[in-house]
Amino acid sequence: MIKCPYCGVELDENANFCSLCGEPLPKMSKDNPARLENRKNSRKEKPMTDFQKLSASQKRKIFHKISGIILLSGILITLVIDFVTNNTISWSKYPASVSLILFINITMATLWFKRYYLWTTLSFLSVSGLLILLDIYSGDSGWGMKLGIPLLLAAYITVFVLFKLIHNTRQKGLNIIAYSILAAGVLSLCVDGIVSGYHNDSQLFGWSPIVMVAAAIIAILLLYIHYKLKKVTDLKRFFHI
Fold first, then answer.
1. Report field, pTM of the whole predicted structure over 0.70
2. Which of 1, 34, 173, 233 lies at a C-alpha separation of 20 to 30 Å from 59?
3. Spatial distance between the Cα atoms of 83 and 91, rounded to a whole number of angstroms
4. Whole-angstrom Cα distance, residue 23 to residue 85?
5. From CA 182, how far away is CA 46, in angstroms rounded?
6. How far is CA 63 from its chain centroid?
7. Least confident of 23-27, 124-128, 142-146
8. pLDDT digits (tens, 9 = 90+) for 130-160
9. Cα separation of 220 and 239, whole Å?
């Protein structure tokens, strides 16, 4: 029997990770199978680059500045080219509007990285405004309010719930894939129902229930395997190889 170097619980000699705390186990010594080596000490340290030495906040600020230079210069270039060639602003307002909203979202994510609810709400409002603006550009047919924003709301809620679920999950593995597949199935139902309601004035589901059932079956199988792997840490024994 060996002990986990993190929580001290006794484990099987063939364990790949701790069944209690979920931490991956370091490589065992060949001389003494019951003794665990510290990979950090045995691994040769490589010199860090200047970028690796930066904190996560500094990296986000660098990304924000670089993306700002690219997007804002792209907006200016497209507007100038459009005006010079057509003596008016025509096609360039589409990429310019999209680039501007994208830069606004990057800025909000940089400034309020840990305030998820705030910048997610503001991001939804800004993208909703973009959809309405694109609808006005294309003739104001009303698809922005009736179709675009409901689809956007469904996508935002689904992705936000998925990320919160992943963030709160202690041991990550096949369960993350299962959650993602379930989220894709739920989003398929939302898209099918919203598009059907827009075209037929009634929520009639066509292809999405099939996708949802298939996603649910796959997700259940993955969750079952993940649960079994938590109990049986020896992969060879689990897969009978």
1. no
2. 173
3. 10
4. 61
5. 41
6. 18
7. 23-27
8. 999 999 998 878 888 889 999 999 999 999 9
9. 18
